[in-house]
């Protein structure tokens, strides 16, 4: 079963990151060396997801900034994010702000996303990036959630604080650095990277709202969204949506089709026409993600299974064995053995 070609199709428009680094005294030649390609125009920078994360991790060390993500977010405005930023800034209220962000975020980035839901009287803003946990993903998570807050505060023109905050990673001391940005109700080593607000805040009007300008920008954004949908294979788009929705209730065919702006019937017909079906591509995604997590992270089998939508680790183990012919534990051991053997062979040359 072939892995998804994530490296070539997922990435982010990272002009904001390059601009910050230049401001901090990092040269374009240094940045180019890290991402592996020459950046001649800092106003047009698109990085593949692994190059983006690699640059983030390197930048934190280069600038001696253990909280680089939050440091960068302090300077983030809606305009930082181009068309997407203008869409959310000119929305009438927080509810539409979030709708615009969820619908149009693919014009800025893929392989990572914001999602929103109401749960227990609270409104959750979740950030996901489709890569195993690392120092680089920690920086990305902290930047993304802090930037959401700062852009929201600017648009509202007043304080806007979450009721609580959760991070999957551990706290990078000092704790006060987090409290200065997110408030005092912060939990680490959790299942999700999320901000939680009182649901009533959704009706809060934005001070920056401009409905006429919103219509103009939305028309332009729709054309960009259409180009994305035309240029990318529908099956690969469906796999992307599945991959970042497995631990939620959004990985069903109806939800995926809705995210792709087609009907479930149209999606199923397209899959059949290409010799596959929804169950098969969902399983392909699960296997690809599971293999990657087993190879590249130290996460437990239970944690990996949970990320892939399995409430019981035994269910994940059975599914993995059915789809691959081996168990997660054995696959990880064989991958580690191969990696060790390769390292030993390389060191003797």
TrEMBL record:
<keyword id="KW-0238">DNA-binding</keyword>
<protein>
    <submittedName>
        <fullName>AraC family transcriptional regulator ligand-binding domain-containing protein</fullName>
    </submittedName>
</protein>
<dbReference type="InterPro" id="IPR032687">
    <property type="entry name" value="AraC-type_N"/>
</dbReference>
<dbReference type="GO" id="GO:0003700">
    <property type="term" value="F:DNA-binding transcription factor activity"/>
</dbReference>
<dbReference type="InterPro" id="IPR009057">
    <property type="entry name" value="Homeodomain-like_sf"/>
</dbReference>
<dbReference type="InterPro" id="IPR020449">
    <property type="entry name" value="Tscrpt_reg_AraC-type_HTH"/>
</dbReference>
<dbReference type="Pfam" id="PF12625">
    <property type="entry name" value="Arabinose_bd"/>
</dbReference>
<dbReference type="GO" id="GO:0005829">
    <property type="term" value="C:cytosol"/>
</dbReference>
<keyword id="KW-0805">Transcription regulation</keyword>
<feature type="domain" description="HTH araC/xylS-type">
    <location>
        <begin position="236"/>
        <end position="334"/>
    </location>
</feature>
<dbReference type="GO" id="GO:0000976">
    <property type="term" value="F:transcription cis-regulatory region binding"/>
</dbReference>
<dbReference type="InterPro" id="IPR018060">
    <property type="entry name" value="HTH_AraC"/>
</dbReference>
<dbReference type="Pfam" id="PF12833">
    <property type="entry name" value="HTH_18"/>
</dbReference>
<keyword id="KW-0804">Transcription</keyword>
